[in-house]
Amino acid sequence: MKHTAIALLTLACSACASTQPMPSGPNEPHAQAAATAQPAPAADATSALAVVRIPASAPQASLIEGTVPVGSTLIYAGRAVRIAPDGRFVVGVAREQTGELTLNLTLPDGATRKLAVTITPRTFPTERVNGVPEKTVKPPPEIAARIEREQALVNAVRTRDDDRNEFEEHFIWPVQGRISGVFGSQRIYNGTPGAAHSGVDIAAAKGTPIHAPAGGIVSFANPDLYLTGGTVLIDHGHGVSSNFLHMSRIDVKVGEHVTQGQIIGLVGATGRATGPHMHWGMNWFDVRIDPQTVVPPESPH
User: pTM here?
Assistant: First the structure.
């Protein structure tokens, strides 16, 4: 995953003001509280953990990764954030988020802090998409009901909160090709305004293999959703998931574990599409994330 610059916020515990950075990864040895010649007070062991690593800023529609002391609790927007055994966590920044994003941290000793990340605003373009079937733009009541049912199934699998950490992998592009649609753009279908685009589109020939951008568990697979056609979701852990739409063929099944680079299916033009392409979307639970904030456009698979 592409990482932003990390600011170190040293939080002194109520028991002691001196602090010492905690290790940044699960394979690094924990810092020792004192030299053998003179044992340190017990409070120093607590204060040594009281270091938080979190970006000072983050763009809209991105993932924020950070580290808090092991044994802490973290609340964001009323949601308890999963913290890995090594103290790492991830949260999602919504497209509409402005100002500051606030996290409520409770340290192992009970002390509380508010952590703030400055959100960098972005400009999202307007895209006109013509030639899609009119019934997909203004669906009749029975089709609208089908779309609602199908979306509810997709939303349900996005509630997963697995303790796997494959979201920490350096994501790769699932398909090579020209970017034909960007995240967050205001879509106008056949002249009718629609919802903002929820992913990035890569123009590619029908039948082009689609590769898993990171490891994970296939949480959803359906070859015939009304709007998105052949659809696959991969859960990367901690609420982070990828979705792939308009596929002509699906090569994985629900519950299957896939590894980074594994072929999960083929590019198509099923559902609401004017031509073959791969739509790659990302989520943190119900928060939509721009894949281009996770892997840069100049680094295709």
Answer: 0.81
